[in-house]
Design a protein that fits this description.
By secondary structure, the chain is mostly helical. The chain has a single domain, classed as 434 Repressor (Amino-terminal Domain) (Orthogonal Bundle), CATH 1.10.260.40. It contains seven helices and no strands.
């Protein structure tokens, strides 16, 4: 992983969220060119801003760097929902997931 991965991942997540570079910059409290400068390779976000970007996309830093996951924000929402289930419901959900994977 390198700077190109970080820039590309931010662009990928931004497009999935359906926001422009300008809107994302504004939402994060920066000037209109902030995200453009990251996407174009002119700058990288410092750690504090990287964490804010992860929060903006509703992903953990681990999910951000997981190249095998196309929709980390959906997985994060699923995990948050599962945390609220009781054990019986989680086992039922796990059974459902396993059944769906068998049919792939």
């Amino acid at each position: 992983m390198d700077e190109v991965f970080i820039r590309d991942r931010i662009t990928q997540l931004r497009l999935k969220k359906g926001v422009s570079e300008y809107q994302m910059s504004y939402d994060l409290g920066h000037s209109r060119g902030y995200v453009y400068n990251i996407s174009s390779g002119k700058a990288l976000p410092p750690m504090k801003e990287f964490l804010a970007i992860c929060e903006y996309f509703e992903v953990t830093p681990q999910q951000f760097f997981d190249e095998s996951t196309d929709n980390p924000e959906l997985i994060q929402k699923a995990v948050e929902g599962m945390k609220q289930l009781n054990e019986k419901d989680m086992l039922m959900l796990l059974g459902f997931i396993n059944r769906m994977l068998e049919n792939k």
